[in-house]
Amino acid sequence: MRLRIGARLFEGPGPFVMGVVNATPDSFSDGGRFLSPDAAAAQAERLAEEGADLVDLGGESTRPGAAPVDAVEERRRVVPVVARLRARGFALPISIDTSKAEVARAALEAGADLVNDVHGLADPALARVVADAGAPVVLMHTRGTPATMQDLAVYRDLLAEVAAELRQALARAVAAGVAEERIILDPGLGFAKTPGQSVELLARVGELRALGRPLLVGPSRKRFIGHLTGAPVEDRLPGTLAAVTACVLAGVELVRVHDVAAARQAAQVAAALRQAAILR
Ligand code: HH2
User: What CATH number corresponds to the domain at position 232?
Assistant: First the structure.
């Protein structure tokens, strides 16, 4: 990949590690821990020390069944965190995990660099904000809303349908004026996917490289790991690292995780294995 995100040029195969900070009361694994701007900013700084390449800040949980948050509340949760980090000289690019145009605009104005939209810029107002700002964007695959997505996890050909829907999102974003070279794609593990479908996507994620854009995958602590192992959400780091390894071996450039130091180490080893296999 070759993509400027804020002050940093992301060049080559990576792997690059995106550290997650959820300034929410109800995120599935870290809800309530980083709700205050101080706690969220401190967590972003901790993840930077652990070796994150960028951080992803969210103010609304997207887990199945999560309660929607209005734009005023979501802004109140995230914008002070971005402002605080920038005021303290935080050096990493900041991604804002939102599907709301108003939140994205305010966060970009406060110093965020990238918009991570789990709805793949389905909202034209958000697409306009991203296009006007010239910001890079992550388009994630999902269907419906947190309330309906589990019922929409019905596919005749999972890989083909996810790829086709990502291609549509890409075309929609480009039509709205977003430069194609600023777009990253994400298959959306756990979003309108059963645990079995998340496993299949993870196993075959390399096929999505045919879409021609850098890939980001977020396996961290997700339900498919609990489903496979019985581990509760707080004990899913080993499974997360196995998934990170699979992503990097498949050529995924960016992984989105809560546990940055551990994921970085797994990603580095997997990257060396991939490189050695390619060179043989
Ligand atoms: N997963 C979550 C949220 N945002 N963004 C991208 N691009 N890819 C993902 O896989 C992804 C995402 C869900 O994880 P988390 O932020 O920990 O939980 P919650 O949505 O409950 O806040």
Answer: 3.20.20.20
Q: Determine whether 222 is an active site residue.
A: yes
CA distance 6 to 255: 18
For residue 25, the enclosing domain spans 2-279
Q: Which residues pair with 114 in a beta bridge?
A: 95
pTM exceeds 0.90, yes or no: yes
Q: Can you name the residues that pair with 217 across neighbouring β-strands?
A: 255
What does each C-alpha distance from 216 to 40, 181, 183, 253 come to in angstroms? 23, 15, 11, 6
22 lines ligand 1 (CB under 6 A): yes
Question: What residues are paired with 21 via a beta bridge?
Answer: 57
Q: What is the 3-state secondary structure (H, E, C) of 12-31?
A: CCCCEEEEEEECCCCCCCCC
pLDDT value of position 66: 87
Known catalytic membership, residue 4? no
Number of domains composing the chain: 1
pLDDT one-digit tens code per residue, 54-110: 999 999 999 888 889 999 999 999 999 999 999 999 999 999 999 999 999 999 999
Tell me, using a 6 A CB cutoff, whether residue 94 lines ligand 1: no
Residue entry with tokens 């309660």: 67
Dig out the tokens for 136 from the structure. Answer: 């890079």
- pLDDT score of 46: 98
Q: 181 Cβ partners below 8 Å, 6+ apart? A: 2, 3
218 lines ligand 1 (CB under 6 A): yes
Q: What is the DSSP string of 111-180?
A: T--EEEETTTT-SHHHHHHHHHHT--EEEE---S-TTTGGGG---SSHHHHHHHHHHHHHHHHHHTT--G
Low-confidence ranges of the chain (pLDDT < 70): none
Query: Which among 105, 182, 222, 223 is annotated as catalytic?
Result: 222
